[in-house]
Amino acid sequence: MIFLANMRWIKTLILDALFPFRCFCGRWGVSLCENCYKKVTKTKTQLCPRCKKISKNGKTCISCRNKSNLTGVMIFGDHEGILKDIIWRYKYEFVRSLAEPLSEMLVERFGLFVQRKQFILTYVPSSKQRQRWRGFNQSALIAKQVANKTGLSLETLLLKKGRTSPQVGLSKKQRIKNIEGKIRAVDVRNLKITGKRILIVDDVYTTGATLEECAKILRQAGAREVWGLVLSRD
């Protein structure tokens, strides 16, 4: 029995060395196989990010336009099931290769609209300590893949300054306070986004506090429209 257990352990080590990625279903060689990719469910409708009423492409409704800096937020799916597991592995097990299928989900659903609008792509910034801990900005990697797949421009427009507590577990009021004043434009004089449409890529949408703060900064810099493109809604 010990011999068999050791052989299974050795086999796993060899397979991990030859095929560093392993899907949820156990298949080696891919971080997300085609069958598991197909199991990811998307939301049936898009909602106004403010009042949550059904809205085409997640556009901020007429009643809420004067209450938000966001023109709209497009969200792929709900934060549950396999999509939640994929995002968790991507962010907390640091499986960078998952940026490819995650970006593909966004492009498959929203690619045509994004290309028609001729957005300038950007992403929610990470704090320096968070990026050192993770080794990468998860939103930036996905944004880069989306830009490559759509042929649109990707620009680093925003930075996070100072230290912030993780938003996970905070109330809406706490999230707003936590992020307020922590986002700034890279260099307003050189942004050249006056009159442009900007698309901010992020992973999870909970209260929208972070996207709202980012949108506020970009509007102040002259952006005509600011949208969000997000993987899941918690």
- Major sheet details: 4 strands, parallel
Helix content: 40-55%
Alpha-beta classification? alpha/beta
Mean pLDDT over the full residue set = 87
List the domain count as a whole number: 2
CATH class of the largest domain: Alpha Beta
What are the segments in which pLDDT stays under 50 over at least 5 consecutive residues?
A: 15-19
Looking across the biggest beta sheet, what order are the strands in? 1-6-5-2
CATH architecture of the largest domain: 3-Layer(aba) Sandwich
Shape: globular
CATH topology of the largest domain: the name is Rossmann fold
* Structure annotation, total helices: 9
Gyration radius, rounded: 19 Å
Please write the string of helix (H) and strand (E) elements: HHEHHEHHEHEHEHE
Approximate strand percentage: 5-15%
Question: What order do the helices and strands come in, and which of them pair?
Answer:
Blueprint: H1 2-18, H2 34-38, E1 72-78, H3 81-92, H4 99-117, E2 120-123, H5 128-134, H6 138-150, E3 158-160, H7 172-179, E4 183-185, H8 188-191, E5 197-205, H9 209-220, E6 225-233
Parallel strand pairs: 1-6, 2-5, 5-6
Antiparallel strand pairs: 3-4
Helix pairs in contact: 4-6
Would you give an account of this structure?
This protein is of the alpha/beta class and 234 residues long. The chain folds into two domains: 1-30; 41-233, Rossmann fold (3-Layer(aba) Sandwich), CATH 3.40.50. It is 41% helix and 15% strand. It is built from nine helices and six strands. The strands form two sheets. A four-stranded parallel β-sheet has the order 1-6-5-2. Strand 5, helix 9 (209-220) and strand 6 (225-233) form a beta-alpha-beta unit. The chain starts with a helix and ends with a strand.
